[in-house]
Design brief:
By secondary structure, the protein is α+β, with helices and mostly antiparallel strands. 37% of the residues lie in helices and 33% in strands. The protein is built from four helices and four strands, in the order βααββααβ. Strands 2-3-1-4 form a four-stranded antiparallel beta sheet. It starts with a strand and ends with a strand. The model has no long low-confidence stretch (mean pLDDT 97).
Amino acid sequence: MVRHIIMFKFIDVKDQDDCMQKANRLKAAFAPLRNIINVVESYEVAINEKSTDFSYDVAIISEYNTWNDLETYLNHPEHQKAISSCKDIKKEKAVLDYEF
């Protein structure tokens, strides 16, 4: 199995409401992919609930049977559409991919 974790930290956030609005937009764009892309074995979109100086705002944790399945997910048109729909949200990203 392969686990893919991507975390987003929003940049230029006005206040907590702005942060939550952006987090909910990301979740709305990406959460449906679990039921659309058939190579996804497990999928969770998590919004951070405890802020620290080094916290990220949203994480997507997903699992796939193979590295090829992960590539299929990453290149899938619906995944690309979700990315495009959130492109205007300024953010930093961190990614971790590993086999377990």
